[in-house]
Amino acid sequence: MLIEGDPLKDIWATQNxxxxxxxxxxxxxxxxxxKNPIPSSDAYQTLPREIAISPDVATQGSRTVVKVTGRGxxxxxxxMLNGEPLETKLAGxxxxxxxxxxxxxxxxxxxxxxxxxxxxxxxxxxxxxxxVRFKP
Length: 136
Description:
By secondary structure, the chain is mainly beta.
């Protein structure tokens, strides 16, 4: 390691690294090609834990567009219906829009909607319930 100054007189001289040679190769001390291998410990905070949906009631066998609101939505978030991904787009900082195809809610009942964040430590929000009523 080549430094500017005398570390025996001033320990802070060790901060003035001009060049580092390791295993016979010059090391990039500016770390210009460095990528932190440790993921951020707070990455999960970008996922909304609590979500709300509108409408929360749909008709059996109908194509439905659902607005999913939650704190801190991102373009990479995906709305899931009973664990299956839906066509999703970002509609605002705190809102996603998801299209539920008619065949996905062919039966009346209660369906589970969540927001998934691929690659996150906590990859899914708490569920919101969609009630699908019988077709008149």
